[in-house]
Design goal:
This protein is α/β, with parallel strands linked by helices and about 725 residues long. Among the domains are: about 1-75, no CATH class; about 80-140, Arc Repressor Mutant, subunit A (Orthogonal Bundle), CATH 1.10.10.2420. The strands form seven sheets. The chain has a seven-stranded mixed beta sheet, covered by helices on one side. A six-stranded mixed beta sheet has the order 17-14-20-19-18-21, with no helix packed on it. Strands 4-5-6-7 form a four-stranded antiparallel beta sheet. The protein is flat, with a radius of gyration of 35 Å.
Length: about 725
């Protein structure tokens, strides 16, 4: 195209501009237009080309306003040497004092930048030459001092800031880690379009009505970012949904917008009220407050009206192929694709009135999807009452039909979904444009998967049915209700999502990374207590007081300003069986005959005097003497203990599956149910815990010293508390 204007020989500068135009222009329909300006030497610089590309991207409709385009791109603007000289002179005059003081150590780039801002279309090299000339005239040649490198200013080290207790606020801004997620999502970080600039997105389809619809959209939203989290209410949310929640709510929060919680309740056969309740509960537990809670069923009337309009426009038809016939990627074309519009309208009305049985008729849209799937179904017949609309409808819309139109109704700006929905992006744009309604932009991101678990609803139901787990909230699962029951703080889950990052690629993570996030949060949040899992009775024969003493134990030993709790200390205490040995091995530092230990927080050291055994030779009691720690030799170790304790049950959890990918036939040929870990749950029925936890409530969290982090289970009753171990204090090297 350029040679037709310039002849066979093209200079290098023109060639470079042509290459950049072809490489950077997303919509080729304007390529000839730009080539003409380059060939006629009306666009001469990369700066002008960038302005031209931005103008074309911002004005998708034909015809372009040529005068406005040329004004925006500096076409015909001639910057004279005199103008450049005057602009540089003015800038140097403003910085004269600093230049004389710093001489050639002054940042000359600042002068260049300010001069260019005054003369947008001036040649950069010419400006630089003029700056160099005028600086030389002002300062004279460089001296030896000018040639010395300027010493770097020492960076002030930021003061160590004490970690703050993470606070959950609206839309989920929690803790320092989650703020890093907001940084990932803020502003230009993701290269998402700005509200109202949908047409700048690659692949977005512009119609003659697009700009008017976007103008109406901006009038309604005021330019606000709007996202939505659209779960199906037919199961419990899992760890993968946590990323979706953080992404949708987090992107809105980071950019001053709002996020809807919209239930995709278009399949009444599988929906239950408990799922609606649990989903909202989990969203709020993670620290997010929806801007509005909506349902796809709120819009059933409007969706039906639009379906009629789609038929009238010749873009949908009633089909009688069976479900089995249209499954897969290469089904036979429908023989009813070209049936008359009037016929489809009458038959669709018959579908609504219940004149067709389930599977006898569907409404299909006339399009081919990105994955090759042809004419997706928009409506199907289901004689199942809906939990919200009752028996008003016996036809229900599909995801492919409902989702984009609900986004349009709610004026969503960014429809964020996982990567597997990329094949539906073209149908998303097609349907909105076929009906001439506002068309949001669909953006895809990578799913979050976890090893050593399953998250599909069908497989979790199988685990429950076979008794492998108790229910959806069994703490060995990675549903959000299960993680809450096990004791994972919501901040830890949000921090985990932040560390995974906003990736386009699918992320498959090890559970120990989530556990590490839990340890970080619980270390700051969980007050300390003492508990003994396998108790061994210890009698102090020389107890220093006639009655029980009170010992003050810090809630957080690293920060005693956060308070103390009292525990009783009397002649009978209980320690862990594993903290005593009759024979000392090399490296063993705890209690043994001839090897005293300290009792944590008590201020006393105990030494074994007598070992009492039962008939089988098992140690059942120790008799010891105690000495105040400030007068005795420092022991090799301090151990935890309880006195006047409360009985409790403790549940210790390990991974539910033995292999990383229990669903992979190559790894587990017998199927996921054959891969269950027989040691995934160990129940300690007669554990003891100190009395400071007497008034706890379900989900309260503690660090049991030396044992791990624990959470109160909802099974707890008066007189018998139940604790779930969330994580150990340190990562098991074998799991990393």
């Amino acid at each position: 195209q350029a040679r037709s204007a310039l002849g066979p020989a093209l200079d290098k500068a023109t060639g470079t501009l042509l290459y950049n135009a072809a490489a950077r222009l997303r919509d080729p329909k304007h390529l000839g237009f730009l080539v003409g300006y380059i060939a006629r030497r009306e666009i001469l610089t990369d700066l002008q080309l960038s302005a031209a590309l931005e103008y074309v991207r911002s004005h998708p409709l034909e015809p372009l306003d040529v005068a406005d385009f040329e004004r925006a791109c500096g076409v015909g603007v001639c910057v004279t040497p005199e103008q450049i000289e005057e602009a540089v002179e003015a800038v140097i005059s403003e910085h004269r004092a600093e230049l004389l003081a710093e001489r050639y150590h002054f940042n000359m780039g600042l002068l260049m930048g300010e001069a260019r801002s005054r003369l947008r279309w001036a040649d950069g090299k010419t400006i630089k030459n003029e700056v160099d000339l005028q600086v030389l005239h002002l300062l004279g040649p460089k001296t030896e001092a000018d040639l010395e490198k300027k010493p770097k200013a020492a960076k002030a080290r930021p003061a160590l800031v004490e970690k703050q207790k993470a606070a959950v606020v609206e839309n989920g801004e929690v803790g320092t880690e989650t703020r890093s997620l907001l940084e990932q999502l803020r502003g230009e970080a993701l290269k998402f379009h700005k509200p109202g600039e949908n047409y700048k997105t690659e692949g977005y389809v512009v119609t003659p009505n697009t700009m008017a619809l976007l103008k109406q959209h901006l009038a309604i939203t005021g330019g606000q970012v709007r996202t939505r989290f659209p779960p199906e209410p037919n199961g419990i949310l899992h760890i993968g949904h946590a990323k979706a929640i953080n992404f949708n709510f987090g992107y809105a929060k980071a950019n001053g917008g709002v996020c809807f919680l919209r239930y995709d309740d278009t399949n009444p056969e599988k929906e239950e009220e408990k799922y609606f309740t649990a989903i909202r509960e989990m969203v709020e537990w993670l620290g997010y407050q929806p801007y509005a809670v909506t349902h796809a069923s709120d819009y059933f009337d409007q969706l039906y009206t639009w379906a009629l309009e789609l038929i009238r426009r010749g873009q949908a038809y009633v089909c009688h192929q069976k479900v089995e016939e249209i499954k897969g990627h290469n089904p036979p074309p429908s023989p009813w694709r070209d049936r008359p519009v009037e016929e489809s309208l009458l038959l669709f009305e018959d579908m609504r009135k219940g004149k067709f049985g389930e599977g006898e008729a569907t409404l299909r849209m006339k399009l081919v999807m990105e994955d090759g799937k042809m004419d997706p179904v928009a409506y199907r017949v289901k004689f199942t009452p809906h939990h919200r609309t009752g028996d008003k409808w016996c036809i229900y819309p599909t995801y492919d039909y409902t989702h984009c139109l609900c986004d349009s109704i709610e004026h969503i700006t960014h429809s964020l979904c996982t990567k597997e929905f990329q094949a539906r992006r073209s149908s998303y744009f097609w349907l909105c444009n076929a009906l001439d309604v506002y068309c949001p932009v669909q953006w895809e991101y990578g799913r979050l998967n976890l090893l050593y678990t399953v998250v599909s609803k069908r497989k979790i139901i199988r685990l429950v049915e076979t008794g492998a787990v108790r229910d959806w909230d069994d703490p060995r699962l990675f549903t959000l209700t299960a993680l809450r029951r096990r004791g994972f703080p919501p901040e830890a889950i949000n921090n985990f999502c932040a560390r995974v990052g906003v990736t386009v690629a699918q992320a498959t993570m090890e559970p120990h990374l989530l556990e590490a996030c839990a340890r970080e949060v619980l270390n700051e949040q969980a007050p300390r207590a003492m508990a003994v899992l396998e108790p061994l009775k210890v009698t102090i024969t020389n107890f220093p007081a006639p009655k029980a003493l009170e010992v003050l134990v810090p809630n957080f030993p690293a920060d005693e300003s956060r308070g103390f709790h009292k525990v009783p200390f009397q002649p009978t205490v209980y320690i862990e069986e594993t903290d005593f040995r009759e024979e000392v091995d090399k490296g063993y530092k705890r209690l043994a005959p001839g090897q005293p230990v300290g009792l944590r927080h008590a201020g006393y050291i105990i030494a074994v005097q007598n070992v009492i055994k039962d008939a089988s030779g098992r140690v059942i009691e120790l008799e010891v003497t105690c000495t105040k720690s400030d007068v005795a030799e420092k022991p090799k170790a301090f151990i935890h203990w309880v006195s006047e304790p409360l009985a409790c049950e403790v549940r210790l959890y390990e991974r539910l599956f033995l292999h990383k990918n229990p669903e992979d036939p190559a790894e587990v040929p017998g199927g996921f149910l054959s891969d269950l870990n027989p040691d995934s749950l160990r129940v300690v029925h007669n554990a003891l815990v100190d009395s400071s936890v007497l008034s706890v409530r379900p989900f309260d969290k503690f660090q049991f010293e030396r044992l791990g982090y624990f959470s109160v289970d909802p099974d707890s009753e008066e007189g018998k508390m139940v604790f779930n171990r969330t994580v150990t204090l340190k990562e098991d090297p074998g799991k990393a």
